[in-house]
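User: Is it possible to get a 3D structure for a protein together with its bound compound? The compound here is hypoxanthine. I've pasted both below.
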Amino acid sequence: MPHTTPDTSSSYFDQVALATAAVRAALGTLQPKVAIVLGSGLGAVAESVQAPIAIPYSTLPHFPQSTVQGHSGRFVAGTLGGVPVLIMQGRVHFYEGYSPAQVTFPMRVLGALGIQTVILTNAAGGINPAYRIGDLALITDHINALPFNPLIGPNEPRFGRSEHTGLRFFDMTEAYSLRLRTLAHQAAAEEGFSLTEGVYLATTGPSFETPAEIRAFRTLGADLVGMSTVPETIVARHMGIQVLGISCVTNLAAGISQTHLSHEEVFEAGSRVQHRLAALFTRLAPLLTALEPQP
Ligand code: HPA
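Assistant: Yes, that's possible. Here is the predicted structure of the complex:
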């Protein structure tokens, strides 16, 4: 069940190690270097995976369980475009009552597994008036409007994977890798569609925003608003994992659209773009393996 008691850093590290060992055992000989986290309504992307191995989160020690409709709660491993990938079908959010450490627990497991690239997807409200429902937007940068940073507390250098990672203070100038964004644009063009771009702002939810909040966020420089991704990006960068963020614009943000918002609308819009996202990832995965890892 969700709880908000902070984990102590030493036992947290051991919990991550236990969950990681369980995932590794289930993967057998498959050694993915690329992971994809699927947001609300985007879970069917996992159906494009070849030779899938499903690993329910409920079989993993200490792994947080999603309570949200549309988030199914399992890893699906296999190949995409011939490349081994590890997909997370479902994630947990702060608004479910999970602590920042729990929200980012899966990211720590990905780091411990040796994942080098993570693609974070989400459903987002479009603040930028140029956006249309169903647009896929590459996240260029983020604004953390959550009431925490997941790294608050003692630093755990053992989460680092080189002398440049696992640091107390680290750079976030290019949190969302430019070279990954370039490859994503290339893969989309090969599939015959284009991706837009924007700055993602994370709020807690679970209520959607008021029109006044959306006007304020626009003034702050946000193009997209959602309830996830930012804690995962911060923790991924702490470990030196390169991040590609993709928002599906499932609705126009409050006050921009004249209609009222609902989870069903978000879910349905996500479902409609899943096939495009699956095609994008199938093109993109082979391009990612050609990259040299960055520190
Ligand atoms: N606001 C916050 N989160 C969201 C939205 C929204 O409008 N749409 C999808 N996730």
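Residues 123-125, 205, 208-209, 225-227, 250-251, 253, 261, 266 surround hypoxanthine (CB under 6 Å). The two ends are 36 Å apart (CA to CA).
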